[in-house]
Specification:
CATH topology: Outer membrane efflux proteins (OEP)
Number of strands: 4
Largest sheet: 4 strands, antiparallel
Structural class: alpha+beta
Order of helices and strands: HHHHHEEHHHHEEHH
CATH architecture: Up-down Bundle
CATH class: Mainly Alpha
CATH superfamily: Outer membrane efflux proteins (OEP)
Distance between the termini: 67 Å
Radius of gyration: 36 Å
Oligomer: single chain
Amino acid sequence: MKLLKLSMGLGACGLLAGCMHAPPVPVDLNAQVSAAASSTYDPAQVAAAARAMAPTAKVAPDAPDRLSLLAALMLYDPRIAQAQKALTVAMREAASARKVGQPSFALTGQYSNDPTTEPWQASLGASLPLDYGGVKGARLRRADVAVLIARHDLAEVIWAERMAARGALIDLMVARMRSPLLTQQVAIRAQILDATDARLRAGEGAAIERDSARIAARQAQRALDDNRAAIADARARLATTLGLPQSALVDFGWADFADPVAVAPVPDAALAHGAVVARADVLRSVSAYDQSEADLRGELARQYPQVTLQPSMTWAGGPMTVPFGLGLSMPSWDANRATIRAALARREAAGAAIHTAIANALGTIDTAAQESRAARLAQAHVQSGEWPAAMAAARRAQQRLAMGETARIEALTMQAGALDAQLTLTDALGRIQRADAALEDALRRPLSGPEMEIKR
């Protein structure tokens, strides 16, 4: 009896000595908010991250470009960091799924007042579930697929944040290109208003002309104010995507922004096929199907009894007895058929989700390619028709004004028309850049720029 107690005590001490310990990590919300509000952009750190992604690319810390923007996202974006942590969790859980089954032990003591026997009787029993076969294989497969899903989720988050930053950068650059044109437009509309007002006071004009000029001047001022708000909004969205305060935001360059490729980068069938089979959202739907398949295999395996070894030993003062038992965990009374049918239905639903993801991807590619072509066609119409005609009319009006053949108001109106044409041309450029960004989003790959040099 003493030997049994000693062995049990030593075993308990051994178990306690091998336990892991994790200190508590309380959340200091005030400190976290302060740290987020005071975050800074480190040019050297971003440049080093950009060089690690694209060793052959030209990276200048003092002239960040779109590659630097992606590197900054990987460093500072909290949503990407959260997705990375989720992947770590999935990997840890996959390792945990491979642990040996959890045993259980029971120690019982029995007292008897029979003088012919030992008053105390002690028994030690164990329950050792056997981890094998289809149930174990399904659990391991599900854990491995969960890691794949977490990887696909991380890729989708990175791409979504990249596209959000790209969209904000496009809006910011277009608004900045519009800003000097709108400033000139406000000045010209103010001159037209002054001229029409002077004509009205001289009795040479009509009140409706002055009212029209006043409306046009107010519209020009409102367009300038809206453009300033668009610049502030784009900067705010870019800073939010990066996870930095606006005070830490730097200007990211885009060398060929005003000169996109003349021909729309329309993907052929092979490129579209390759893009669809490599899209993280499509691959995630396939992984979800694999998970449903693993669930089905596990439910099929649960049709059969699960075996548990139950060794024990009993001591009553005399010889020690060692009985041995075998436990069987039986399936439900319907032999698990209802659960299997549910697993079959989930697998069919997961298969349908794959077809939906593929259809959505192909449709998105076709739509984006069509918009890319339409945007370039619209720009070509402006470049070949509206813009040169407006510029020529403004030049002729200026020449006629110099020769005294036309009034100053008509010349200023022609200049305002030329600025409107330039603004339309700038908007057409913005449409092309947004259409190309949508096509990149559909293909899940960059089509131009320094990101093409990223080492895969």
